[in-house]
Amino acid sequence: MDMNQYLDMFIEESKEHLQAINANLLLLENDPGNITHVKEIFRSAHTLKGMSATMGFEDMASLTHEAENVLDLIRNQKLTINSDIMDVIFHSVDLIEGMVIDITEGGDGSADVSIPVKKLRSIVAGDFSAELEIAAAVAVEEEAPVVEQAVVGENELDDYALMVLKQSKELGNQLMWIKVTLNENCLLKAARAYMVFDQLESMGEVIKTKPTVEDIENERFETSFEIAYVTMQSEEKIRNTILNISETHDVKIDPIQLKEASAPAPVVAVPSESASEVKKAPEVQQATARKQAAGGKTIRVDIDRLDILMNLFSELVIDRGRLEQLAKEIGKSELHETVEHMSRISGDLQNIILTMRMVPVEQVFNRFPRMIRDLQKDLNKKVNLEIIGAETELDRTVIDEIGDPLNHLLRNSLDHGIESPADRKKAGKPEEGTIVLRAYHSGNHVFIEVKDDGAGINKERVLKKAIERGIVNPANADSMSDKQIHELLFAAGFSTAEVISDISGRGVGLDVVKSKIESLGGSVGVDSVRGQGTTFLIQLPLTLSIISAMLVQVQDEKYAVPLSSIIETAVFKKDQIMMAHRQKVIDFRGRVVPLVSLQDIFQVPVSDAAVDEDEVAVIIVRKGEKMAGLVVDSFIGQQEIVLKSLGKYLVNVFAISGATILGDGQVALIIDCNALIK
Amino acid sequence: MLEHKEIVGEVKVIVFRLKDEEYGVEVNQVKSIEKLEHITRVPRTPKFVKGVINLRGVVTPIIDLRNRFELEESVYSESTRIIIVAVGELEVGLIVDAANDVIDIAVDAIEPPPEVVGGVEAAYLRGVAKLDKRLLILLNLDKVLSTEEIKQLDAIEG
After folding, report:
1. Where is the CheW-like domain (chain A) (predicted)?
2. Chain A interface, mutation test: which of B31, B36, B37, B42, most A Cβ atoms within 10 Å?
3. Fewer CB in a 10 Å sphere around the end CB: N or C, chain B?
């Protein structure tokens, strides 16, 4: 049987199930006792297994099969979930996701599943210590820096050291894992290391080193060594002290997290252990509940078909316009009523078709909890991601594009905004940071907010860096407002180097975020209070295809002016027009605003019917701070218009950004006000 | 000049009239033939760009072929047609005096265009076909629809 025809469906559904599994896994992690989540996961996994087996993706089928066995045990309460089992399942899901991506890209979806399969089997067999060994072996084999960092301190320390650390922590000490890197051309490495130890000993206690003290003394290390360290001092102070020793190149300090669950003993079927470290996440649960309520029955439609439907519909609208006209001319009441009825129905239809393109931002937001979960493990930070307004709808085309910029902003907030638990504690904040991802409608726009309660933006450092990079002229630096300084983060030159991240880090790649959002017709801004957090606010148009516009008449031609650039419309007497430098101007609320005649600029042929009036209709438009008054013959009215491109043949037409089709079937051009204001 | 490789045997062409001559475009490049309807002028474009029309929901640019070929202008009449052609990603309507025939032409009957035929620049032509007493001028749409001139105009304006 030819499976290709089912491939698209398979891919789409797999993605959906994986999404569901991920979401439920996160819920489960926060609420391990809740079997309903396990049941949901099991159901999705079961479907995935069946689908992949049918499609002949053997690796995927076997992996899901093993995962299913584990889930089955949990479901029947023969096995209690803990964070290690969670990790194995998460890892398996990642693998499956990778396979689906491979299949999407035309691959055969094969992958080496032996390790996770072995792990899953060992969980089922109850032989979990063996599994842990494998895990350790894998971690070493892969040498993935992320993995290494995630378990920083833990694997390196023996029971005795752990006990010391635990006690010190209870006494209010900071536990740190310090990695000191010396300059490459450092001549007396052992001596430098000795100086580091000397300094550290004066402020706290070195618990363990890697490599061993002996090796370090004999210079048996490359350029870096690591230390488990207990101190009452701040991370910042330790860092500065070490950096003050000459020839030290870099110091990396990570807090050591002591987890109860990570005690060396195997933890199969030990309940409550991991429950102690989990937290309730009512927000997330609420969001899901809403999702389930709003879910209902759906059918997948190709976006191209929706486009075709919309085009066909605008045809219908045109005919409706003609019918209305005819009915008016013929003046027969039955005809009139029928046409009126039809108009109303087609109006409703139009709304439905437009809203059919709208999808909840949930689709994008869904993937972030998982990302945050992984990232906070990597960074050794604690953070709670609150998602609000996931049901807010956006046009499909916008949804597809918004994921990457949001991902970027969230990573930024977690990486550079939220401080380490130790620092937070010192600042009098709860150890667990909060990142709020909120979406809401306002007027014709959708706002998406990424807000953290982290350290905020360090203006002095940003400014200093901007001057170094030549983005800001030092002469102007003093006069810059906070807002202007914050905006610097989006400057193009700011993003290039990682060096940035040791200052504020906020600059990494934000220019990309900005340009992406602007390409969607939106804007992004940032606001920050030092020590209290940072908020990024994205404003997006509801859809890329429908905008509000003011239709105007210029002689016999009609033009649309996007409402977003209009300040207001006004009628002026001809004698109110003044001349300044051979340029017609008007006094608009105390400001001198130049007038632009659309008739002149578009060389509109003069209509026979034109009458010379003593009043001029003016649309005041703006571009940033600048304003201009567009002179038209009359206002037709405000209308929602469907944006159309002029096509590939007519590119860069002066001051025209596109076209729309009016109710009478004619094309009206959309004026690009930005081009008219110099 | 002749692309024998892609035409084997016969080609089907739509025949249209421009001034007093007959032209042809390959049928697979033609999407539809429309009657003249309201054209919205697009300011600051070359003279041969008459504007845009609403073609079943798609905004489609319209070129007056007489203008394009620098022939004398004429008043649009009942027989005036818009031939919607598609070349690659370009979709453009061509205003012609009349369009009323579809014929098959043997590839052998196509000859390279003479240097000058009826004032139309040779670059726009793909060849000339002799059919009994008729002379059919086959258009090279790629050249006719080249956006170079529009870009040049853009450069001047800019």
Report:
1. 546-678
2. B42
3. C
